[in-house]
Amino acid sequence: MPDLHAIVIDPQIIRNLRGLNPDDNGEFLREIISIYLEDTPLRIADLDQSLAAGDVQRFARAAHSVKGSSANLGASILRATCERLEQEARQNGLKAVGPLVVQVKLEFDVAAGELRKLLVQPA
């Protein structure tokens, strides 16, 4: 059985995304990845800012946003961490989310590295 933690980006989701526009030489996939790589750091900054401000609603929305976009690109580990982060914030507030925010940042860096490899791969 493969180590599921070693699968940073789910290859089946990438295949599905490529299949949405099979004749575009991977352009659609590259565009989606580029948007994710530009937008997600902004959502992660929202986590930091809303945590500092004590804004649970904004924090949970930012976690939800990263969760959804990560799921769309197959970043399953990051998606799961964001789901825990969102649930923790909604159920218990922001007092214990700091370590999970650090984990989200680390997991995003790993996922982003894998997605950047897909930007330069031929279709």
What does this structure look like?
The chain is built from five helices and no strands. The radius of gyration is 15 Å and the shape is elongated. It has helices at 11-20, 27-53, 56-72, 76-92, 98-120. The protein has 123 residues and is mostly helical. The longest helix has 27 residues, at 27-53. The chain has one domain: Four Helix Bundle (Hemerythrin (Met), subunit A) (Up-down Bundle), CATH 1.20.120.160. Helix content is 76%, strand content 0%.
The CATH top-level class label: Mainly Alpha
Query: Kindly, what is the distance between the CA atoms of the first and last residues, rounded to a whole number of angstroms?
Result: 28 Å
Architecture, according to CATH?
Up-down Bundle
DSSP, total strands? 0
Please give the share of residues in helix: over 70%
Determine Rg (CA atoms, Å).
15 Å
Beta percentage is under 5%
Instruction: Provide the CATH superfamily.
Output: HPT domain
Indicate the low-confidence ranges by residue numbers: 1-5
Oligomeric assembly: single chain
Helix-strand string:
HHHHH
Count of separate structural domains: 1
On the 0-100 scale, what is the average pLDDT? 92
CATH topology: Four Helix Bundle (Hemerythrin (Met), subunit A)
Number of contiguous helices: 5
**How is the biggest beta sheet arranged?**
none
Estimate the global geometry from the Cα principal axes: elongated
Structural class, from helix and strand content? mainly alpha
Strand and helix map with partners:
Layout: H1 11-20, H2 27-53, H3 56-72, H4 76-92, H5 98-120
Helix pairs in contact: 2-3, 2-5, 3-4, 4-5
